[in-house]
Amino acid sequence: MNTDDTRSLTIIGAGLAGALLATLLAREGWRVDVHEKRGDPRVRGYEGGRSINLALAERGRHALRQADADEAVMRQAVMMRGRMVHSLDGHQHLQRYGRDDSEVIWSIHRGDLNITLLDLAEQAGARLHFHQRLDTVDFDARRARFVDDRDGGMRETEFDSLVGADGAGSSLRAAMAQRIELGERTDFLDHSYKELEIPPAADGGFLIEPNALHIWPRGHYMCIALPNDEKTFTVTVFLPNQGDPSFASVGSGAQARALFERDFADALALIPDLEQDWERNPPGLLATLYLDRWHLDGRAVLLGDAAHAMVPFHGQGMNCAFEDCVALARQLLRNSDRAAAFAAFQAERKPNAEAIQAMALENYVEMRDRVDDPDFLLQRELERTLQLRHPGRFVPHYTMVTFMRIPYALAHRRSEIQRGILVAATAGLASLEQVDWRAVDTAVLERLQLLEETA
Ligand code: FAD
Ligand code: E1W
Q: Which DSSP state fits 88?
């Protein structure tokens, strides 16, 4: 063990959170080892070349800036100004996310992002060990055993503390659960997803508007598409597991084509490999993971999806995981008592993780069923008006989550109050002309403090 140097850490998982945390601590002179079950994506090429992308927002960008990673990441990012809503009749309209192009989100390639972060971690002095799947942990001897899945070879190492950045199926979490009661609960959504691809146009450009997140809302299900810098789009179809239509009723590529002909006709024309893409992979599961405890005294701690996996409908899982990395690094640098640092990290982040988990679940119904609804559009219009009438006091929900860094728990509390005001003020109305402004202004002033005063 590293007895003369307590500033050492063993991270499990070189995914998004593992690579960023390694960079943040290695730059502060820590001895950091990262063990990843898969091979080095920089050597083998990533995921067979398929593009899977993610929306990066202000919380994630701020964390990347702390590691001087933002600039490299942003070189490959595609701006998304708003959601482009596709109605059944083929009409599209852009609903802007923010006030102007300073309030936008960014589509980034997961594999490229991971590679950028791995390069930075290594440059900062972190040691990366690939083909090392965490298998078992002896917490008393502080020894961890890893397996190379190519040949079954085993390796053991000693550790000061383990950090579980090994994702929703965390092996470290399973090992910790054998020692202490974590209070683990997984709520599976009764919906799953599949990914499809829109290729570039014949002239090499984008086939649909590049600077938007496309949504095809269809009530109980939906499709979305995010742009890639190589002029493709990754389409994600979200469907129930049972019923009609569902992943149970739409099993074959031919059935998928029939569903798309009926419900997503304008998208179907853009997806040449629909049948093959549909049949290639089983649907991805979606779940929310709740734990009562994120750490085992000073010996192990979980972060990112390993601690609090969430459904993807707010596009905040990675953004939240990156905020976790900055918070954990800050606690570790501030407090040499590991158990105290891990406890402070959990106290700071768990209420916020639970808030974004709840908001992500709420956003599914909104995205699939409400974005093309007149009530919803009127509420958004009132939201924008109130933002102007009460600057710093009435701040739209999406803005608080996506363009600000106030704690998620605070955003959640204020959003609930604001939603009450929006619903009450627009009930039964067809336009903002009939709004009772006196009543609305009074409600805003009574129920919402200025944001600076509460944060
Ligand atoms: P991961 O990225 O899963 O990394 C875990 C790493 O640990 C992997 O490299 C894995 O190989 C490794 N590992 C696993 N087990 C072991 C082991 N036993 N030993 C060693 N290594 C191991 N978030 C956003 O912010 N924006 C989005 O737009 C967005 N869209 C999403 C869309 C979908 C369909 C889904 C499913 C998620 C989406 N997310 C999004 C969420 C985001 O993908 C996750 O929150 C994020 O990847 C979490 O990062 P992580 O580092 O905690 O875990
Ligand atoms: C974003 C997978 C995913 C990723 C996302 C978002 C959504 C819907 C989905 C939430 C959003 C970016 N969202 N979009 N429009 N309103 N809310 O902002 O990342 Cl399904």
A: T
